[in-house]
Amino acid sequence: MAEFRSTRQTRGTLAAAAGLVAACLSMAQPACAFLVRPTLSAAVGAATKAPSGWQQFCAENAEECRPGADQARDVVLTPELLQQLYEINKYVNDRVTWTSDDVLYGKAERWTLPLDRGDCEDIVLLKRKMLARAGWPQGSLLITTVEEPAPTRGRHAVLTVRSDRGEMILDNQTPEILFWYETKYRYLSRQSAGDPNVWVSFGAEQPKPPALSLDR
Known about the structure:
The protein is an alpha+beta fold and 216 residues long. The chain has 2 domains: 1-31; 37-202, C8orf32 fold (Roll). It is built from 5 helices and 9 strands. The protein has helices at residues 2-26, 52-60, 79-95, 101-105, 120-133; strands at 44-48, 97-98, 117-118, 141-147, 155-163, 166-170, 178-179, 186-191, 199-202. The protein has a 7-stranded antiparallel sheet, with helices on one face. A two-stranded parallel sheet has the order 2-3. It is globular. The N and C termini lie far apart (40 Å).
């Protein structure tokens, strides 16, 4: 009986996924093509210290850092929401010209909501704010710190968007929206889904989708 229920549940999941992809393709939206990719979440570990920039930002913008009523809810991704995600990501990437904190503020690190100039953390903050205003639950919008690949290996920030189709990455360095396992980054830490002020580290070993051979 348990095996029968499992089979029915699997068939239901596959049918729902097939329906979403079919609806998406019928709308002729290029962004929807990635909905057929494997659904896989990154492995996170223990709690870790929040970045100093986040602490400074929250001291100045407490209303942006309070846990939301729907904090832990994932987004049920639809073609329309996916299109909205692309539009907001593109709007912010086009609007904000990357400019270092040293040039803007004369200091190495400062997180703030940008107008037309800012660095990667500022750009992430604006995307997070705009998506939250559009109705995306705060717990699905997680600021994430990463290490760039060689030869730079610099620190960078992106926005992880959690959904029932997996975890997507919004990045000011590319117009594409990728699943977390499709990037070249090494993931360091991110906000927890339950509380934006609790940060968690990433596991040393990350799962890889069976259909892809990735060296990340």
